[in-house]
Predict the 3D structure of the following.
Amino acid sequence: MQRGRPIIVGGYLGLGFGWLLAFSILVRMGIHDPSWRARLHLGNAGIVILVSAGALYCYLRRHEGEVTRPELRDGAGQSGSGSGERETLPRAVEDQSKHRELQSAIHELKKTQRQLIDQERNRALMQMASGIAHDCNNSLAIIRGYLDILLEKPEKLQDEDKVMRYLKSMNRAAVGATETLRQMRKFYRTVDDHELCPADLNEIVTEAVAMTRPRWQDQAQRKGATINVRTKLNAAAKIRGNDTELSDMLTNLIFNAVDAMPTGGEIELETSDNAAGVQLNVRDTGIGMGEETQRRCLDPFFSTKGEHGTGVGLSAVSGIIRRHEAHLEIESQEGGGTTFTVQFPKTFKERDEATSREALLSRSLRILVIDDDSGMQDLLAEQLQNDGHTVDIAADGVEGLQKFYASRYDVVMTNLAMPTMNGDELARKIKVMAPKKPVILMTGFAEVLAAGEEYDSIDTMLAKPLTASRLREALTRLTIP
């Protein structure tokens, strides 16, 4: 309210009461009374007195509010806790409201950051989609081509050397296609999946180079640029890490290096052991960064790529490195390329895999295999029997459960998708009877399931196609203490 408004209001009130008083006097005396003019003057005087009194009253009330209230506030902190409490309560409510607003802002910021990281991941996948299809088609072409030759001309089966060469080529192609599909898991696993486990940095680097090949080779060549990628994988120790996040980190670093070399150049990825743990170096011969860019390159949403950059890539790299308790150093100069150095702590003691394998092969396990595909039944039986194990086969969950009740097995291996009773239901029934019995789930959906749904009754999950080495590894982990 403005300062003069109380006085004006009081004045109008006084004026109104004064005229009301004067009018009542005139009515009583009669308008023709010769002394009415004197009475009117008396009424006017009364009006002036009432207006002045009203204005003075409002002024004093306003003056009292300005003077006495600060005095009361000052005295509140000295004269007792009651006044202090009256002032502290509104302040506490205000602070709590601000805290809620801050928490909400932080939550929204994290949500936006996750969305941008997902967009960056999807953009990377879209850029590599054509290369993934190209690699898979090449692998299938090799497998089908050699099979067609042998089917059309069976007499070639008599040439053992040639047949072995065909088989080795088909095996390499199948392994390559399997790895390509398996690596795609890194782009659809949940972002919040931050568990750390023993990780082979050399293997992750190799996979990242292969997965980004469409970007640094195919797309670059279409633009007339040649980029060569070299690896020096000398690290022997493993680290504790999340393979999905480490793959994201390397993908972003490789893409960043490619963007820094529009006319071509070289990228080198090197791993090595040192006293502190395992070190990763990613070097490029690109345009480099100035001091200001180098200082801000890890800031969220900072980008020098204009509308083509989100400013999320290197910020995500920094977050992944922090979660792995690693240390990042950047060396760069304009026109002289850039080197990202990541130092990982050595916190994982490797297990003697050769000793474990020898221990596994020295004992024969009795294994129950449940799969509704006859081809998979035969293949698994051959693989396990080659390692000296005894194998019983069941065609579905019901038959498998009957055989489990009727005999004793060291390990149960079951397919997931089966009629009548699926692998998860079978595993739950087995665990009720034998809680410590190892159960291995085999499925072609393993990579997708690992990104979301979990099975409490399953001890380990294996993705098809299965290899003898992965079977040995799983059996070793589950049966050797």
